[in-house]
Amino acid sequence: MSRVCQITGKKAITGNNVSHSNIKTRRKFNPNLHTKRFFVPELEEWVVLKVSASGLRNINKNGIWNSIVNASQKGYIK
Q1: For domain 13-74, which CATH number applies: 2.40.110.10, 2.30.170.40, 1.10.357.30, 3.30.450.20?
Q2: Which of 15, 24, 52, 55 is 20 to 30 Å from the Cα of 3, by its Cα?
Q3: What is the pLDDT of residues 9-64, one digit of tens each?
């Protein structure tokens, strides 16, 4: 599975490592992902999602069901 948050759609971006002598080499910035289980009362079952730290804050703020619905409308969850 790819390194993409299923709630926010965050994925890896690229940038540079910059040394003390200002030599630049390419690198990747990966999102802060965690595999978490959530109980969805509307479905009465557990759901496993790969979410970022900001995705967890989003779930805490809006609720798991609203977050899943919004993510599926945006195409982050199939």
Answers
A1: 2.30.170.40
A2: 24
A3: 999 999 999 999 999 999 999 999 999 999 999 999 999 999 999 999 999 999 99
